[in-house]
Write a structure and sequence with these properties.
Layout (H helix, E strand, L loop, with lengths): L2 H25 L10 E8 L6 E7 H7 L4 E2 L2 E2 L2 E3 L2 H4 L4 H9 L4 E7 L3 E8 L2 E9 L3 H4 L8 E9 H7 L6 E3 H9 L4 E7 L3 E8 L6
Antiparallel strand pairs: 1-2, 1-12, 3-4, 4-5, 5-10, 6-7, 7-8, 8-9, 9-11, 11-12
Helix pairs in contact: 2-7, 6-7
Length: 209
């Protein structure tokens, strides 16, 4: 798997882990109007005794509570990015290049190990990564299907700008949430692999699907 693909998968992982870090505390706080935007996270386990976890949090509440949480890499509403998460990929330089360029498909990688697509269109950044974990040629002649992990990210560019406004080694989650609150209904992250299916999205509903 290439360093670029690993870095993008790591970026999606950081976003999801940041959510797990502050969601439990947010659930205990007071609720707000149903008309406000809500961020939803749904995690479905594919194990035999798997479970489904649904989290629904008003974005306005998240903005207020998040700065009070200091746990691991999450401090004062910002997530510290370790070098290991980036795998030598300079995401700041990459995203800045995309942000200042015209709409288009900037990166397309197709190989036996993974497929990567990075594009910008109508104010949104799209990152799609498919990692093949099995031998497709062998699976073709056997009952075992080739394993794959798929990550799909769709983020408004104004949210990307806010997320990376903290500095080179940090993600400003509070600033990103503030920018996100002014956006309409959006599917943000979809992750599918052999173990779990993860979906992150925002809308005006106070319950998830």
């Amino acid at each position: 798997m290439s360093n670029l693909s690993k870095g993008l998968l790591g970026f999606a992982g950081v976003a999801v882990m940041a959510g797990y870090a502050f969601f439990p505390a947010l659930i205990e706080a007071q609720t707000v109007s149903k008309a406000d935007q809500w961020i939803h996270v749904r995690v479905e386990s594919k194990e035999t005794k798997g479970e489904t976890v649904r989290v629904n949090v008003p974005i306005e509440m998240a903005e207020k509570v998040l700065p009070a949480i200091n746990h691991d890499n999450l401090r004062a509403g910002k997530v510290r990015i370790d070098n290991a998460h980036l795998n030598d990929v300079d995401l700041h330089a990459l995203l800045d290049a995309v942000r200042t360029s015209k709409d288009g498909e900037y990166v397309t990688v197709q190989s036996k190990e993974n497929n990567v697509r990075i594009a910008k269109n109508s104010g949104y950044l799209y990152i799609h990564v498919t990692e093949n974990r099995g031998d497709a040629s062998v699976a073709k002649h056997t009952a075992t299907a080739a394993s794959e992990s798929r990550v799909e990210i769709k983020v408004p560019m104004k949210v990307v700008d806010a997320l990376f406004s903290a500095g080179k080694d940090e993600l400003d989650v509070v600033a990103a949430l503030h920018a996100l609150s002014s956006n309409g209904d959006t599917e943000l992250v979809s992750v599918k692999d052999d173990e779990n299916t993860v979906r992150v999205w925002i809308d005006s509903k106070n319950v998830s699907d």
